[in-house]
Amino acid sequence: MFKKLLVGYDGSEGAKFALEKALQLSQALHAEVCALWVRGSLPHYPETVDEVEEEREAADSFLQRIRRMSLRSPRGSALR
Question: What is the set of domains in the chain, with CATH numbers?
Fold first, then answer.
């Protein structure tokens, strides 16, 4: 039926619930889950190099949390 599922994620409790349900559904459908995250208000223009690094670290941290959630799901879902 569906080969790919797209889930918007902002870290809220509702988003966590939606992601968990998408991971469960992906297992039943043998589908891939793609989580989309938009951080902060755009456009964001960094004033320093450190701000760019902070944004990169925040994005990496987010991806690690999502991957851990995926791996905790039974049979592990494909998460991109």
Answer: 4-79 (3.40.50.620)
Helix (H, G, I), strand (E, B) or coil at 7: strand
Q: What is the CA radius of gyration of the chain?
A: 14
Q: Which residues contact 73 (CB under 8 A, 6 or more apart)?
A: 20, 23, 24, 27
Taking the C-alpha atoms of residue 49 and residue 24, their distance in angstroms, rounded to an integer, is 40
Work out the burial of residue 61: count CB atoms within 10 Å of its CB; fewer than 13 is exposed, 13-18 middle, 19 or more buried. exposed
Which pTM does this prediction carry? 0.57
28/41: higher pLDDT: 28
Q: Give DSSP secondary structure letters for 19-41.
A: HHHHHHHHHHHT-EEEEE---SS
Looking at residue 5, what is its pLDDT?
92
A 10 A CB-CB count for 77 gives 22
